[in-house]
Amino acid sequence: MTIPPRLRRALARLRRDILFIAAGVPLHLVSPLLFTWAGILLARTLAATSSNAPAILPAPLALLVVAGYGLTETQRWRFRALCGVDLPRLRFTEKKRQFGYNWLVGPLLGVLEALLLALAAAGLAAVLILVWIWVIPWQWRIEHPGYATRATLVTLLGLAALAAVPALAAGLVRLENIVGRAVLGVSWADELAQRVEDLTESRAGAVDAADAERRRIERDLHDGAQQRLVSLALNLGLAKATLTDLSPAAREAIEAAHREAKEAIEELNSLVRGLHPAVLDELGLDAALSGLAARAPLPVRLRVDLPERAGTAVEGVAYFVVSEALTNVAKHAREATRADVTVTRLGGILRVVIADDGMGGADPARGTGLRGLVQRVRSVDGTFWMSSPVGGPTMMSVELPCPM
Q1: Disulfide: which of 67, 110, 133, 148 matches 29 by Cβ 3.0-4.6 Å?
Q2: Is residue 103 within 8 Å of 68, Cβ to Cβ?
Q3: CA dihedral defined by 116, 118, 123, 124, rounded to 10 degrees?
Q4: pLDDT for 323-341, tens place per residue?
Q5: Is the distance from CB of 160 to CB of 126 less than 8 angstroms?
Q6: Rounded (10°) angle between helices 248-275 and 312-332
Q7: pLDDT digits (tens, 9 = 90+) for 1-54
Q8: CB within 8 Å of 52: residues ≥ 6 apart
């Protein structure tokens, strides 16, 4: 006879639950025995007056700790192998949680497990009561009239007990899963810390990937479009110098195209430097910022104090901050005559300070460029601070984490 799939799944689930509960009885009930034995040993040690008593005193406590850790690892195997629940591995130093489960919660669960197994055994024995009666001698049945009625009642009670076992077993397994995750699993604080660590790692990977993509675009522009524009400008310059018999209109068109090509090259150079300058990878932040200061439309006093290079992502953010800040000074800082840029490294912090003597009034909440700066700084867990009162001066301070 073919067993229906639904019944087959129910029987398999019941078998799994019974095995899980049966395996838990010795594990849960052995802990109070160990606890009692260790307590007796501790009491005897305290009562001893021999000279070696202080050396023996830690033995019961060490036994409790080692036994608790071993029971915890066995419980982890039980949950994983019989119930499909993978509890995280606790550190050996987390004694309180292991003690709470093995010596306090575990025995209570063990009592419930033993009662459930006893109910199942009693129900099975009650269902088979008529079989036991037919096995005993005929003379007993003659001497006990009415046994059939009583045996039938016992059989019905046994069937009721067996019918309740699957639901009770499933409920007890769910209870143990909840308790196991709560006590032996990851706590809310640990889980939150792990999620923060995972998010930090994923964000760092995204920042690195974005930085690598910017460098790839910079190389493609430098090796592709920029070289074509340079070749075009050279050809137009050569044509303007050699083709002297052209009409004035044609010469004017060539000169205009030549100027446009050179302006396009300059704009492309600015774009490439803004993405990720090659000098930043080759010579470091000091050389890259020196180039920015030299190209700025107003005097820039630069001071860089870096005993060693920072990470690639941190250097990229620092360069972007200085580049955007100097651009904002040139465009928006009214009456600014100079700017100061200071880059220092204090332990694990790279600090960038940009100041100008303009009329102030800058607000990150209103300017998209400044909001982009704030977002770029926060992408590497940095902090952004700005002071720009009306009338000036303006000071921007950025601190970027830079592990040693």
Answers
A1: 110
A2: yes
A3: 110
A4: 888 888 877 767 778 889 9
A5: no
A6: 130
A7: 577 888 888 888 889 999 999 999 988 887 777 777 766 766 676 666 554 545
A8: none
Q: In whole angstroms, give the CA distance from residue 169 to residue 292.
A: 73
Q: Six-digit token pair at 288? A: 């890259």
Six token digits for residue 352: 């960038």
CB contact at 8 A, 302 and 344: no
Q: For tokens 């100097």, what's the residue?
A: 326
Q: Which of 24, 3, 15 shows the shortest CA–CA distance to 115?
A: 24
Paired tokens of 153: 């009642």
- Please report how many Cα atoms fall inside a 13 Å half-sphere around the Cα of residue 245, on the Cβ side: 0
Q: What are phi and psi of 397, to 5 degrees?
A: -125, 130
* Alpha-carbon gap, residue 14 to 385, rounded angstroms: 63
Q: What distances in angstroms separate CA 233 from CA 230, 267, 333, one per listed residue? A: 5, 14, 35
Q: In the chain, helix, strand, coil percent, each to 5? A: 70, 10, 20
Residues, the chain: 404
> CA geometry: angle at 239 spanning 236 and 241, to 5°?
110
Widest CA span of the chain, in angstroms? 141
Determine the distance from the C-alpha atom of residue 243 to the mean position of all C-alpha atoms in its chain, rounded to a whole number. Answer: 67
pTM of the model: 0.49
Q: Cα dihedral angle (36, 40, 46, 52), rounded to 10 degrees?
A: -110
Token pair 């992502």 is at which residue? 313
Q: Strands, E, within 101-235: which ranges? A: none
Q: Which residue has the tokens 């005897």?
A: 44
CA pair distance 197, 381, nearest whole angstrom: 13
**Which residues have CB under 8 Å from 292's CB, separation 6+?**
273, 300, 319, 322, 323, 326
Query: 204-220 pLDDT, tens per residue?
Result: 665 665 666 566 666 65
Token digits for 201? 């790692």
